[in-house]
Design goal:
Layout lengths: L3 H13 L10 H6 L3 H15 L6 H8 L3 H4 L6 H13 L12 H18 L3 H6 L6 H16 L4 H20 L5 H7 L1 H13 L6 H10 L4 H27 L4
Helix pairs in contact: 3-6, 6-9, 7-9, 7-10, 7-14, 9-10, 10-14, 12-13
């Protein structure tokens, strides 16, 4: 039996050893370190690796080395877990904008930032499409989009419509992941070349336009496609704004 004095000496001696001599924490210690942040981070890892459908509380508990009941001390249910995951990802979107820029430039920068974050987290755009998160970072992103649209002189109704249009466009674009089969096909030069040859070989009497223009559609231009689409949306909103202002001017 170890004497109290011996135990104290052993503890003191252990404290003097470098970290790598310290025994690993036992299961009980690991369970005590479980936090909401750790639960959310692991859930995000599962979604990125295997998709939203692979996420369950039981699977998550197994990966974290705890019993499922331990998770419910940090999240109420899977629905809340989804919203926490989404809000954590949206926290990565830099919502700071230079308000001296034109409203179209501000919205463009924000949309590009949102797209980048969503594409850096596979599976999140699909989850976001099915939910309407109201966490602090989700709300901050909505505020950042709405402010320049409203400051541009759009009415309350027009501002709401414009926000939905731009947000849905960005989210929809991110859903067509850069790792999808179609994107991989056009990014690989050899595969793209074979695809273009196939399009040119189609019967011209049946597909004349496709034969002539197909290779200009299936090309590696993902960034250009997003930018062009966004510019078109904002250009349309700006034109509508000017038309409404002209219609409200007093007639001579």
């Amino acid at each position: 039996m170890t004497k109290p004095s011996d135990a104290a000496a052993a503890a003191a001696d252990a404290g003097s050893h470098p970290l790598w001599f310290t025994p690993p924490a036992g299961d009980a210690d690991r369970r005590r370190t479980l936090t909401r942040e750790r639960v959310v981070a692991e859930a995000l890892t599962v979604i990125a690796a295997a998709g939203v459908d692979a996420l369950s509380m039981r699977t998550l508990a197994t990966r974290l080395g705890v019993v499922p009941a331990a998770l419910y001390r940090h999240v109420r249910n899977k629905e809340q877990l989804y919203d926490l995951v989404l809000d954590g990802v949206l926290a990565e979107v830099d919502c700071r904008l230079d308000h001296s820029l034109a409203w179209t430039e501000q919205v463009t920068k924000l949309a590009h930032r949102l797209r980048t974050v969503l594409e850096d987290h596979p599976g999140i755009a699909g989850l976001l499409k099915t939910r309407d998160p109201l966490g602090p970072h989700s709300l901050a992103l909505a505020e950042a989009f709405l402010a320049p649209l409203h400051a541009a002189g759009l009415s309350a109704r027009e501002t709401g419509l414009a926000f939905s249009l731009i947000y849905d466009y960005t989210l929809g674009f991110a859903l067509s992941s850069r790792t999808s089969v179609n994107e991989q096909r056009v990014r690989d030069a050899d595969t793209r070349g074979r695809l273009h040859a196939f399009l040119r070989s189609l019967p011209a009497e049946r597909f004349p336009t496709l034969v002539a223009l197909g290779e200009h559609v299936w090309i590696d231009n993902r960034d250009e496609r997003f930018t062009t689409g966004l510019d078109t949306l904002l250009g349309g909103l700006d034109a509508a704004r000017h038309r409404r202002r002209r219609s409200q001017e007093p007639k001579a």
